[in-house]
Amino acid sequence: MVFSDLKLNRVILELRYDRGYLYLDRCGRTHLKILEDPEWEFVQASPEITLLKNEKRNLALNFNPLNIRFIQEEVENLNQFKAKTSKIIPIITTELEIKTFKRIGNRYRFILTVGSIEQGEKLIRKTGILNISEDKVSLFGKSMKNSNIVIIIENEYLNYRIELKTVERDDKKIPKNLRINEAFNPKYGLLIDVDIFTVVDVKTEDFNPDDFIQKNYKVLENNLIDFVKGG
Question: Order of strands, edge to edge, in the sheet holding 7-16?
Fold first, then answer.
């Protein structure tokens, strides 16, 4: 397994704050400024949330009095995500006069195609992270299935929540006219879901989305395979 075997099924950037009081006053003006980029389309606005989409980039954006959230599906080029977030975040924070982010989360959902659920579970057990002896398994049954893992690794400024689990595409729930990209949505896959989030307040003026996303992705590119690879 090498890093290039992983497909970035989804990337998320979420910025939380607790003083978005101007949302109701400036929601319309904010999304009109965002719509100056013709790739964005208005979806809806309400007192609770504003939604926009960018179909060309498989991107969605929502913001409200408590957070800003970007989601991109089937990511071929992370530079597009970095460029759009870097342009739009200052628009929203300026209009809503947000001074501090209480939490910044950057989530990466990678998919590795496998031949079966059993193969995916075998890869999880080989990581050595889930180390349960056969004697302990035998206390309750004959074998272990659904060997999913969720761990949180703490640092001074950033925490990493890492989840490994097997996934199976449910073709019955997919509309017949919808094209499925097998590379990003395989029939069977090993999901590696990494949520990287701050544990200290960050001033909006000090936050650079491009740098934050790039540094996080580089850490994963350099270390994720070694973390999950079996010995």
Answer: 41-45, 50-54, 59-63, 67-73, 7-16, 103-113, 188-198, 158-168, 149-154
Q: What is the pTM of this model?
A: 0.92
Paired sense of beta strands 67-73 and 149-154, if any: unpaired
pLDDT tens column, 100-139: 999 999 999 999 999 999 999 888 888 877 676 677 767 6
Q: What residues contact 81, with CB distance under 8 A and at least 6 apart? A: 11, 13, 57, 59, 70, 72, 75, 213
Collapsing DSSP to helix, strand or coil, 111 comes out as strand
Question: How far is 58 from 133, CA to CA, in rounded Å?
Answer: 44
Tokens 């650079």, located at residue: 208
Q: For the stretch 31-63, what's the b/e string if a residue is b when 16 or more beta carbons lie within 10 angstroms of its beta carbon?
A: beebeeeeebeeeebeeebbbbbbeebbbbbbb
Residue 143 Ramachandran class (φ > 0 left, ψ -120 to 50 alpha, else beta): beta
121: helix, strand or coil: helix
Mode of pairing for the β-strands spanning 41-45 and 59-63: unpaired
- Reading phi first (left if > 0) and then psi (alpha if -120 to 50, else beta), residue 27 is in alpha
H-state helical runs in the chain: 23-34, 78-96, 117-126, 134-137, 209-228
Instruction: Judge whether 121 and 191 are in contact, CB under 8 Å.
Output: no
Domain boundaries, the chain: 3-228
Asked if 108 and 8 touch (Cβ cutoff 8 Å), the reply is yes
The per-residue pLDDT for 182 is 84
